[in-house]
Amino acid sequence: MGGDTVRVLFVVSAGYDDMVETRELRYFVAVAEELHFGRAAQRLAMAQPPLSRAIQQLERRLGVVLLHRTARAVTLTEAGSVLLREARVVLEAVEAAERRTRRAAADRPGVVLATKAGASSELLSKLLDAYAADPCAVAVEVVLCGPGEPESLLRNGRADVALLHRPYDSTAGFDTEDLHTEQQVVVLPAGHPLANRPHMSMAEVNALTDLPLPRWPRRDGSYPDGPGPQVRDYTQLTQLITLGRACAVMPESLRAQLRDDHAIVPVPDAPAVTTVIAWPPHSRSKAVADLVRTATRL
Question: Which residues form the HTH lysR-type domain (predicted)?
């Protein structure tokens, strides 16, 4: 389900429909994430007894058990796990709607565009210049983010439009236009024995035990398991490659930002990367529509 889709939950009880409130969902998410009523109450800045009563009322309303409670621990039931997943989507969509509504009412209209720092730099520069030449152009605030963050900013309403990169970013739930597709390369230290190869396969890249692939953070901030170093941005990654601590598979267009102490080897069987411009499907912003039209013309 896309981040901009609001699913309203109903249950039938005593012959009438009763809608779950966003307040109750916020309470439940806090308890489900903390798995401790005391910590959840502190996080919500409320007393524990009313929080416990609210969760019990939610369970009665839905007619299911959401949490297993013992003297030692609180755990999620299967139904609780489902509601946690759905509630996060609903709350994110509500927060996104609030932010976009406030921005639409601002005295000075503008567009917030999110993109990964260092990615699609040439395309972004051309897009901003071409859009600025439009007589109807409004101010564009560019937010440069780490990997995975542009998608999150677009889903939570902090951005109106974003440049995303498939297959690394998910475009589910967004309207998109493809802008550019390119092949990928592996970046190695310049002095590495394989630096002069005409090409490499993904199997060969994965087998480089002396230069493991980096581990990027997931959306929740955790890192996947693996031998590679944890990285947060491209500057950190390129320095690790220079030091001979990692290699990286990345779009060929990033070649222009690398230094002489890096070597580039094409990886023909790596998935192609497509840069897309993405926006919420319900957007009625003329500025967003104009920016998208400018991007597709480029």
Answer: 20-77
Helix 22-34 and helix 48-62, axial crossing angle in degrees, nearest 10: 110
How far apart are the C-alpha atoms of 223 and 261, rounded to whole Å? Answer: 28
Rounded distance, CA 104 to CA 161, Å? 14
Report d(CA 166, CA 283) in Å as an integer.
Answer: 22
* Residue at token pair 């919500």: 44
Domain around 233:
184-266
Count of the separate structural domains present in the chain:
3
Asked whether the CA dihedral 213, 214, 215, 216 is positive or negative, the reply is negative
pLDDT in tens, 15-52: 334 678 889 999 999 999 999 999 999 999 999 999 99
How does DSSP classify residue 104?
A: H
The residue behind tokens 């959401």 is 66
4, part of any domain: no
Note whether 177 and 278 are same-domain residues: yes
Distance CA 270, CA 249 (A): 8
